[in-house]
Structure formats: C-alpha cells, structure tokens
Amino acid sequence: MMRPFGMRDKLGYLFGDFGNDFFFMLASSFLMVYYTDIFGISAAVVGGLFAVARLWDAVADVVWGRFIDSRKSGKHGKFRPWIFRMSFPLVFSGVLMFVYIPGMSDGFYLAYAFVTYILWGTLYSTVNIPYGSMASVITGNSVERTALSSYRGLGAALAGIIVNAVTPLIVFKNNEADAGGFLTAAIIFGILAIACYMACVGLTTERIVAKENNSEQVSLRATVKGLGKNKPLIAILLASLLFMVSILLIGTVNIYLFKDYFSNTAALSVIGVIQTVAMIVAMPFVKPLVSRFGKKETVSAGILLSTVSYGILYLLPNVTTTGFIVIAAFGMFGFAFFNLVVWAFVTDVIDYHELITGLREDGTVYSIYSFARKVGQAIAGAIGGTAITLVGYDPDLKIQTEAALDGIYNLATLVPAIIFLVVFLILVFLYPLTKQRVSKLSADLAEKREMEK
C-alpha cells in the first residue's frame, strides 16, 4: 500500500528548491559582482558569459528532459534517483565557481569563469529537470499540485532569506568584495544544499506511473507537433521568459544600486529578507484566492501590482533607501504569486499536452518550460551586464558618475515596470486556462485515462 499524499510530500518538495536555490540565488545575485570586482572581468563580458551559458543550459535542459522520459520507472520512481545521483557533482561544481587563485592572468580568470560556470549550469539541469518533472507524478490532484507549487516557492523563499540576508555580510568587507568571503559562503551553502536534496529524495513519493510510450509516440517529430498545438504552454513560456528577465535583472542591478547609488550594501540584506518575507506573507493567500478566482486570475492581479509599484519608484524623485525598500516590497508581494503558482501552471500544461497528444512526457514538457526560463536568464544576463556598462559603470571608480548612477536607478525601476506590464497582458489575453477550463481539463483527462485502462 502506497501512503497517501500529505505534508511529508509537501515538505520533501520544499526541500528540493531549498537546495536548488542556495547556489542559484548566490549565482544570480552575487556572481556578477564577484567576476567584476574579484576576477576583474568587465560587466559586458560577464553578461556575454551569462548569455552563452544560459543558452547552453537551455539546450541541456531539453536533452536531459528527453533522456529522463526515455527511462522507465524503477523501485524508487523515475525522477528521485537522478536527484540523488547528480546532487553531489552539482554542489561540488558550485563551490568551484568561487575558488580564486591570486596572481593569475586576466585570460586565466576569464577561462576559469567560463568553464566552471557552464559546468555548474549543465549539472544544474541534471538535478532540476527531474525535480521539476516530479511534481506531476507525486499527485494528480489539481489542488494538491498547487500546494506543491506553493511549498516549492516557500523552499526557494527560505533559501532566499538565508542567501540574501547572510551573503552580503560574508562577502563584503568595508563595502568591498572579498574573495575569501565568497568561497566561505559557497562552502556553507553547498553543505546545506546536499542536506536539502537528501531530504527531498527521502520524503517524497512518486505515485503516478504513466503507461510506457511506444517508439512512434516518443519520436521528436510527434513531440514537437504536440508542443506546437499546446497554446497554454506557448503563453506560459513567453510569460515566464519575460518574468525571469525582470526578476534576474532586478537581482543583478540591485547589487550596484545599493552599493553605488545608495552607498549602503547592508540594505541588500534588508531588501533580500523583505523579498522572501513577501513570498511567505503571500503564501497563505494562494489557496483561497486560487480556489475562488483561479490560478491565471490570481497571478495576473499580482503582476499588475508589481507593475504599478516599480512604475511609482521610477517616477519618485530623490527617493531614500527606506522609501525605495518600502515601495519595492509591494512589488515583491505582487510577483510572489507568480513564483508560488507557476509550477502548478506547468503541471496543468503537462496534463493539457497529454490530453491533446496522448503522450505523457513530463520531463520533455517541463524541460521546454525550463528552456524558456534559461533563455530568460540568458537575456537578463546579457542585458544586465551590457546595460551596466552602457550607463557608464566603472569598477575602478570608488564613486560612480552621476549619469551612471541615474542609469542604474532606471534599470532597477523603469525596465522591470515595463516587463511586468507585458507579462500581465500575456496572462490576461493569451493564456487560455481559466479556472473553469482547468476543471474541465482534469475531468476530460481522468475520463480519457479510464477509457484507456
């Protein structure tokens, strides 16, 4: 007898993203300043590195997703064994990124950055793809999947509150980046990540075992044809890509905003904690709002709040550090709903794919979604590094020019406001799975599976 879905699964799934986000958030928020201030690489070159690495990772996601779908479920499930196997090399590669060897040439630092960062990103796919795909086989219930999505978001939030609160205190000394501090942070987060991955594997249970696809069904041609018909997938891909661009751009630019514009790196810890607290505060509202209004409707309202908040910040003249953080908190509360519900969107999209194609390809569909997120990360990395350079940021200057400071502020406010507005419009007008259509989707799929028995 398989134990029923419950809190143990929710906590196990929480630990998965808890482990993922120790290094993901460390890299997305602090790796650029590590490369510019420790390795001495220009922000524009770092942006290029991020773009190349994310595009490579996007391809790796799809390849790994197809590979996972070609594997049969074993004694411990289809996805959990891969999380266990690949988590150790993933964490080791994450620590390698922050190893600094003094006295080497500029070419060595650039090559080292490329190799270690791309290696880490590739190994990240081998853990994240089975982890993300696993949600659709832990339970088939839409409400329970929304709970898994929320707990995954909470896991990311818990990692975020630790990384954003602790990291600035470790990696900056006298308001300047410290190589030893970065390595210390990486080792600490690596140990915590391994513990979380083991908890994820040990606490979750895979309950749904789909019938094996025959060779014709799993052909790439059949899969691509089905994906092209999946309108909800296409819409959520566009929305997620742009959302990732905005979130990662905010994370990248905030480092320079508080370090140079506000001259207060300690405030980075504050805004990092507030972002996580905003998600925790939003979490209790997810289930009642989604139950009453639906996923699409709830998330759209949250994104609209973010649009308005960052638009106000752009329009406010001479805002103080405290004022900026307070208004930004409303924007963080708004986009927290996207982070908490998006994984439930993905499971709906996977079900829709099965309904219209007859193919149960959790790994492939999830990897396509992950592909879009990675492209968003690539764009954000390229835009962030290039834009920081274009506005005139000079790592050799202790005090930046007025034009550079104004440019950094605009990047942190106006650009996110515009991107959030576009995401809102996509969700409202292009994503078709309203509350009513999701209910019908679940009923139709259950009927189809019953007929196939």
Automatic annotation (TrEMBL):
Entry-linked PROSITE patterns: MFS
Transmembrane parts of this sequence: 12-35, 41-63, 83-103, 109-131, 151-170, 182-203, 233-258, 264-286, 298-316, 322-346, 375-393, 413-433
Keyword annotations: Membrane, Transmembrane, Transmembrane helix, Transport
InterPro entries according to UniProt: MFS_2, MFS_dom, MFS_trans_sf, Na/Gal_symport
GO cellular component terms attached to this protein's record: plasma membrane
Topological type in the membrane: Multi-pass membrane protein
Residue ranges annotated for the Major facilitator superfamily (MFS) profile domain, each copy included: 232-453
CDD domains: MFS_MelB_like
Coiled coil (residue ranges): none
One of the record's GO molecular function terms: symporter activity
Keyword Flavoprotein: no
Domain of life assignment: Bacteria
GO biological process: carbohydrate transport; sodium ion transport
Entries under NCBIfam families matching the protein: gph (TIGR00792)
Protein name (record): MFS transporter
Species of provenance: Oceanobacillus zhaokaii
